[in-house]
P-loop containing nucleoside triphosphate hydrolase protein
Amino acid sequence: MPTQRAPPSLAVTDLSFKFPDGSAGLTDLNLNLPPSSRTLLIGANGAGKTTLLRLLAGKRMAPRNTIRIANVDPFAEGLEGVTYLGLEWVLNPIVRSDISVPVLLASIGGDAYPERRDELVKVLDIDLRWRLHAVSDGERRRVQLAMGLVRPWTVLLLDEITVDLDLLSRANFLAFLRKETERRECTIVYATHILDNLAGWPSHLVHMSQGRVKQWGSMESFEKEAESGPNTGNSLLGELVLKWLQEDLDERGPRNPGTEGTAYLSSGFGGYGSEKKVEE
Ligand SMILES: Nc1ncnc2c1ncn2[C@@H]1O[C@H](COP(=O)(O)OP(=O)(O)OP(=O)(O)O)[C@@H](O)[C@H]1O
């Protein structure tokens, strides 16, 4: 008899990670994201979001006993049901070849899930007559999302892959993801800088800075703090994120302290005018 799987929670315990060059990637991360949660991973460029997602996805090896998904150690027992959609997936050359949408969707097993396949084609407004070498970037991305999501995952790790979608397509896509967490047991962690249409979407937030989790919790737990944001006309979520990013920048300080705008010169880069002309 197959063993009953626990609901898809994500637990990170005392996770530290160094890159192969010895530099610190992540330091002392602790998180506990419940099943059916929709978590936004928030942080400035370089905060460590992709590094964390890749570890959760098993793309990088995490130290033992630091990650549990659905209450199992995925490195010891496998990562069944975890889908990671990030940059390397986006750059897969197959989606630039002269191939039709139905053939592409069938090639990744879409015919085994006809209802999901047809729903995704509708939600993402995909024209089944498209050939992938002759579509726009956003149209290609929509087909890729359908490919990535057609198999019913239990944990979805999204590393900002909706940048090419128009506003309506992205809103429909986000609504689809929300519906997924509401109609079946599945959990989403989404790293993004684009907060359009996201007010009211996440159930949890994780705030990362300089390879650490600064704070995490349910949306309700941040309500008060969000009200003290800078008030720039954004949603409360937008104001909260602006506040966090400004605090992180103030804490970190400038990347090239003491150079007062001469960083290019002191690093040996003589300014834009000094760039070598590319041979034509
Ligand atoms: N292979 C690597 N070796 C050494 N350092 C790395 C490596 N990959 C990433 N880093 C560094 O780790 C830090 C975190 O990178 P990461 O890609 O996780 O950030 P991020 O929060 O996803 O940023 P962004 O929002 O720009 O995508 C960065 O300072 C980056 O330079």
Q: What stands out?
A: Residues 19, 21, 23, 25, 43, 45-51 surround adenosine-5'-triphosphate (CB under 6 Å). Residues 270-280 have pLDDT under 50 and may be disordered.
